[in-house]
Each structure stands twice: as C-alpha cells, then as structure tokens.
Amino acid sequence: MASLASPLVTLPLHAYRESPTAKPAFLTVKNDRHFAGHPLLSLLDKCTNTKQLKQIHAQILRGGLFFDSYSASRLFAALSLPPSSDLMYARKVFDEIPRPNIYTWNTLIRAYASSDDPAESLLIFLRLLHECPELPNKFTYPFVIKAATVASDIRVGRAVHGMVVKSILGSDLFILNALVHLYGACGQLDLAYRLFVRIMRKDVVSWNSMITAFVQGGCPEAAVDLFQQMEMENVKPNQVTMVGLLSACAKKGDLEQGRLMHSYIEKNSINLDLTLNNAILDMYTKCGRVNEAKRLFDEMPEKDIVSWTTMLVGYAKLGDYDEARLFFDAMPCQDVAAWNALISSYEQNGKPKEALGLFHEFLLSKNAKPDEVTLVSALSACSQLGAIDLGRWIHVYIKNQGIKSNYFLTTSLIDMYSKCGDLEKALEVFHSAERKDVCVWSAMIAGLAMYGRGRAAIDLFLNMQVTGIKPNAFTFTNVLAACSHTGLVDEARLLFSQMEFVHGVLPGANHYSCMVDVLGRAGLLEDAVELIKNMPINPTPSVWLSLLGACRLHTNIDLAEMAFSHLLEQDPKNIGAYVLLSNIYAKSGMWEKVSELRKLMRVSELKKEPGCSCIEVNGVVHEFLVADTSHPLSTKIYSKLDEIARRLRSKGYVPNKSQLLQLVQEEDMKEQALYLHSEKLAITFGLLSLEQSQPIRIVKNLRVCGDCHSFAKIVSQLYSREILLRDRYRFHHFKEGVCSCMDYW
DNA sequence: TTAGGGTTAG
Fold first, then answer.
1. The architecture CATH gives domain A528-608
2. Nucleotides of B under 7 A from a protein CB
C-alpha cells in the first residue's frame, strides 16, 4: 500500500485520465507532506472559475486524494472562498470530508461570515466546538467575530469575547482588533473604547478600528481627537485611517478640517487609492464644495460607480437636479445604487412627484432592477403625495417579485397606508409582519395617532413591551402625539413621567412639544407654561409653537404674544408663528394687530407657504394650489364648486372667515379666497372624477383650516361621500357629516 | 503544513 501512495505524487495530470487502473480507495494517506506540492493542488491556484474547480474536484476524487485531509482542505478552501467560490457546492463538499481539520472548519466559518447568511457561521462554530478534536485557534476567532459583526449579534460577540479571555489567545492582536470593530459596529462605543485602551501594543489596524467605530457611531469629533493621539504615539496612519477621518469631516460638515486631512495625505505621501479618492470627493461634496470635488473627480486616474454616485448626490443635495441628472446619464453603467441615489434625493428634498417619475423610468429600464432601498424611497414618495394606487401597486410588486421584506419595507408600507388614508390596510401589514422591530411598532403607533385612535395607540405601545421591544425616542413622540390628538391628558402625563426612569429615554424637545400640546389643547395652559419653565433643556421653537397653537384654540392673547416673542428670538422667519398669532388676533377681531403683523411679515420678506392639496385619480396625482386655474378641467371644477356653495348655503352654512390670514381686505373677497382654498378645489375635483363608492383622499401640505373642515363635513353628508383628508398633522375622516377627529385637532 | 483584522456612495 505504501508503494501505491508514492508514485501518485509524481504522476502528471494526464496520467490520471489515462490510468483506469488507479484505485482511489487504497490511496489513504500515510504522510500528508507528500501532498503539499501535488500537481492537482497546484492547479487549484490557477483556476479562474468554479467549473475548473469542479473538474479538479472530480480528479481529486478519482485519484483518491480527497481522503487526505490536507488535500481536501485545499480543495474546499478554493471552492468556498473568492475569487471563484460556490458556497452551496462547497458546503456539500465539506459534508463529505471524513474528519475536517481545524483549517477546514475555519475556512467554512470564514466563507459564511462573508455570505448573506453570517448567522450560519455562528452555528458552525458551535458544531466545531463539539465535533472538531482541535481547539479553536487564533484564526478561528477573527472569522467568528466577523460573522457576529455582520449579523450585528452583540450577544454572541460578547460570549465569544468571553471564550477568548479564558483561552490562551487573550492578547492576540488580530482577535482584539476584530472585537473593537465588533463593538463599534454594534454601536457599543463604550465597550469598544474600553477594550481599545487595554490593547498593549496597538497597531495601525487597532487605531483604524477605533477611529471608524467613532465615525460610524456618530462621534466624529472623538475620531479626530483619537487621530491626534495616534500621531503623538508615532503610529503612522495609512489610507484606511484617512478614509475614516475624511468621513468624520464629511459627517461634521467641517470643510476646514477636511482640507487639513486632504493636505496631510499629500504631505505624507499616503497611498491615494480609489477608495481614498472617493472619500475625498465625499468630504468635499458633503461640505458643499461640489466644484472642488468635480476638479478632483476629473483628475482621478480610476473612477468607479461610487465616484460617479458621490458626484451625483453632491449636485442633487445642492438642488442642482439638472447637473445630477447629467452625471447619472454620463455614468458608465447605472446600477441600482445610482438610481436609488437619484430617486431618494428627489424624495427627501420635497420632490416626491419627480421621485415617482424616475421610479417609473427605472421600472422601464433594462440594466437594473429596483431593490428594497428603491421601494422604500418610492413608498415614501407615495406617502407624501397620498398616492395610494401606486403604493398598492408597489406592495403587490414586492409580493410578486419575491422581494424579501425587511423592517424598513414593513415600516414604509405601514407609513404609506396610514398616510394615504387606509388605516385598516396598515394594520393588516403590521399584523402579518413576521418580525417587528421598534421602527415597525412605532410606525403603527404613529398611524393610529394620526387617526385619533389614542387608546389603541397606547395599547399597542404596551403590547410592544410585552414582546420585549424597548421603546425609543420616536416611539414616545408618536404615543404622546396619539394622546394629544385624542385628549388623553392623564395617560400622557403618566407616559411622560416614566420615559426616563422606567424606559431610560431622556425626554427631548419633541417630547416637551407634545406634552405642551397635550396640556394646551386640554385648556391647561398654566400647566403647559409651568412645564416649559421647568425644562432642563432650552425650549425649542417647536415647544413655543405648540403653546401658540393652544393659545389659538383657547384664545389667550397675552400668552400667545409671550410665546410668539420667545419663538421669534430663535427663529425670526417662522411663518407658522405669524400665521397662528394672526389667526388669534383675527378670531378676537383685533384687525389692527393683524395688519401690523402683515407689515412685519412684508418687511421681513416672509411669505406664507402656499397651500397645496393632492388627490390621486386612477393612479395620477393631481395637485391644486390656492385659486388654481391650471387644471385642464378647471372650468368644470369651478362651476361645480359654485353649485356646492349654493347647496351649502341653503343648508345654513356660513363661511368662517376668522381662520383666514388677513391677506384680502374686502369682505366678499375674503369669502371668495376661502372658497378658493386648495382642499376645496381638490374635493370638488374628486366629486367630479371619482365613482360614488370611491372615497375622496386628499393630502394637504398645511394644517386644514376650520372653514374647509366644516365644508368637508357638510359635503360628506350632502353628497354621501367619504372624504379622507390628511393635513400636516393628522387625518380627518369625514363621513355622514361627522369627522373622525371629533373636531379636536 | 495551507489563512486572518480596519476603508468610500445609497
């Protein structure tokens, strides 16, 4: 038998093919060393694709080499790792290896750590502990920690850390650096830093890991401080360090520091690779210096899709959509990320119509397909416009395309259905979601809040905690808003008082605004003022705006003027404040004060944001501004509006002019202007173009005025139509002459 | 007697 093992080693590859007499079963190994230089194994390194690897696999099986654990491990590594890996196939090969050694186990863990199923790495690690006769070694842990990092599994990460400490590998630099990275990536900056300072001989990777952790954990200042410390300790930074620091400057929007970093790179001859060049571009664009970025972009010897997308986003952020589009069109290839960058910049900059136009274009293009990120952007654009038909279509698209749902998509769907007036469907998505994180729960609570379903929102908030999900700052904003829309004062007080001490969430300015709103609406203006006085943080304009809103509701002029002046100190151009105070004066018949305010607005060149209402009919969104005559059916709409006005008057409806910002002086003009409010035009268009059975869904950019609210109530009764009107703050569901907000808004 | 850690756009 020994004589058979030896000649095999020296045979050239063709000898296998021509040697039908070879008996693999006899070729079990006596001495592994013989196989290291075996020609079949040397060929593994020359393979450029999986097909070739599979051919070698066949030869290895045929030659009996597979039963040598070294050879099997070499084959397995080639199959499971880049550049020509096929993990499914490799896994089957692994399962055939009789006694995989620690190298083979490590390779399998490593392969899964970089796959889309990193959790499998962690399961394999557990199997290794039971099945492998060798102990995990210094190579095992970095791979396992990488898997825990990618899976964001801090629990497993900490357990593995514990094992490392108990092993003899407690001071292995590779392992410690991986752990710093793990804690940083999981947002545990304290743990990362505590470990980092205890590393005795830090190398550049240790510093880079900690710098990156600070940048990605939202502490760019700390990253820059650490860099200074690194210099004092004479550790030479490399391009990875500089990428992290540029990213820190970009996050801070600190152009001066960014420039310093840029010149540091040049002075210290740090290798300017593609990634570093891209990071420099990113820093300049984020600091608003697109032209400088463009100069560097033109000089770059090599560009990739990141370079192009960075420039595109830079222009889009400045509102230069034409230039952004030019970059998009000039890109060597438009991948899904480029589409997403363009679509989301429109969507996030108040251009939801344009975003949806691009989304349509994307669907028609051949070179890429929308992914989860695209759909989240598109759904958000639908929410903004109230485009429920398209929103529903996207929901079906997600199901039909088998797109894997995630928390973001679930949250976006709930948000879209809630904001487009279909709360039932939002609830259906919520209840059918397999997994829910705090964002999913919070979105549903926000949905219920918008519809004035305060009790249901609080129930959901309690259920969420039963399932073990902890509320965050957003959850509290939403649940407090629910209380405010429903007038649940005691409940809000209790929740607010528990925030910090029971849930560990420090109340922020938003939460105080909500509480002022709750108390103020309920007429407890003194309590609201007391709360503001005792705030541990400076009251923000939104806090004063809430108080001002309450003053409007309860007509308290002194308090309103006080809130107004505080607000203007911080935000002199807050139109909302002027409008509210003007409404309060108008309500009390103080027309001189109204004129004074108007003058002040004119002097400060403040213009009220024009009211705008959207309505979707058969998948097309129609937009109406105040007194809009641009719609093709304009004439029909106005004559219908006249008819409605006549019928309304015969029912005793009188326009409520006190809601009007005093823009027109003549009494009949005032009445006219009220009739020309965008939501009335949209409702009228809805009456004309939708079937009787279809609800009229309107989205308005501003708060609905009292007159339009009464108008919608009566129309819902006179014409037997359901009207769903979403304004800036909440939903109004008009049916048979009643609104779901019970006139409490 | 095989190998490993840190980086950019959305």
1. Alpha Horseshoe (1.25)
2. 1-10
